[in-house]
Amino acid sequence: MHTQFEFTVFPQLETDRFILRKGKMDDRQDILRLYSNENVVKYLPLPLFASVEDAIDEINWYEKIFKEQKGLRWVIEEIQTNKVIGTCGYLNYEKEHNRIEIGYDLNPDYWGKGVMQEALNAIIHFAFTSMGINKIEAKIEPENTASIKLVEKLNFSQEGLLRQHEFEKGKYVDLAIFSLLKSEF
Q1: Side by side, which strands form the sheet with 18-22?
Q2: What band does 4 get if pLDDT is binned at 50, 70 and 90?
Q3: Cα–Cα distance between 34 and 86 in angstroms, integer?
Q4: Cα four-point dihedral sign 144, 124, 63, 81
Q5: Which residues have a Cβ under 8 Å from the Cβ of 181 and sit 6 or more positions away?
Q6: 87-111 confidence digits (pLDDT tens)
Q7: 109, 141, 142, 181 - which has most CB atoms within 10 Å?
Q8: ∠ CA 72-101-66 to the nearest 5 degrees?
Q9: 112 φ/ψ angles, rounded to the nearest 5 degrees
Q10: pTM above the 0.70 mark?
């Protein structure tokens, strides 16, 4: 199946309040601030960032997954302040199945303000219209109720529970799996 999007130029998206764009080295302090917050990394398979080098590695990883056509990670820049306040994107792109996994994180100062719903609506639209995606999956720890509420607002349906699916931070964690099909969008 031919898709319009070919992983040549990183797509920039815009919403009413945010620019979703490629991460750059100038974002390293904002990325460090984001991932050095315990509340942000609580449910992520990431250690707490301790240095600017950690942020640089993260930005380089965004570049790597794009180059390898495995995923896309946008930084969420607030138009009003030009600050990067979070990230969102896709990983585990399975082109032959037109399936991809969504992920996102946000500075706690912006929680509960509809930021992620606005950003995810833009990238979901992009996946279904420009990438030819049929199914978007979200894997969420069951204790992460805010994230579950978010995907439910976006019309994702829970498919099941992957028991002790990943080993993170010294323990096995369950992941609830949610999905949204193009036909439901």
Answers
A1: 13-14, 18-22, 72-78, 84-94, 99-106, 135-140, 171-181, 157-168
A2: confident
A3: 7
A4: negative
A5: 134, 135
A6: 999 999 999 999 999 999 999 999 9
A7: 141
A8: 20
A9: 75, 15
A10: yes
